[in-house]
Amino acid sequence: MKDNIEKMQLILSRDLRTIIESYTWHEILVGLSGANTFFLESKQDHNQNYFLKILRNNSRASDKLFSEKERIIWLEGKLPVPKVVHYEKTNGYEFLLMTQIVGGNAADLIHAIDIPRIITIYAEGLKRIHNLDVKDCPFQIDLDLKIKKAHERVLDGSVTGDDFEEQYKEIKPKDLFRLLINSIPKEHELVFTHGDYCLENIILFENELSGFIDWDGGGIADKYQDIALAIRSIEHYFGVQWIDLFYEKYGLYEVNKEKVEFYILLDEFF
Any idea where the Aminoglycoside phosphotransferase domain is (predicted)? Predict the structure, then answer.
């Protein structure tokens, strides 16, 4: 871990190094963003801690941190999100420095807060995101393009099936993609979506919502993109018996199960 921190420190630009030179680095080893993520702890003021994401730029992750930066800036003042401190793209890497949202992610707090409270915060938080006014939103998530990318990932071998959900474990990626194509929804309920609404991306502090993180996939899309991943996360951490409470607190009384299955299936390719 120390070697990786030292390696990352060597590729910092002079401007970024100046901002964080007095900070202590801690590598974050959980999460699936693909970026190297570090918690930067201030030696002088614990209210000025940062998170730094570093991502090698390639064809699969091109400008991913730029996308997150743009969405966070658009969301500032609309939702509790980090504040962008510094962004740059240099020497084949992207760097995104953000302020810390105080608290812990909901997945880590499952033994510290009662489950109904977490589910309530989780559902009401999603409703808050989905209620955003999208008339000036520049971020449109194109489902056809996402499906095209899924197909490309199957063809180039990026999708191996090793981390498929249990119900898909015995299905080959190409056959699973065929199943995906055959289940594309015909109607869409477009709202502003998070894109990866799981418990790890919800920050809680003193039993209240503190903020939302990891926004690179945010944009206008079908609300079931978020609902599907939210209930998958609930099932993983708490069990299926809590899903109905989530629906109730969100205000969803007629669930489109076909859409839930489709968006969970779509996520298998990313």
Answer: 37-255
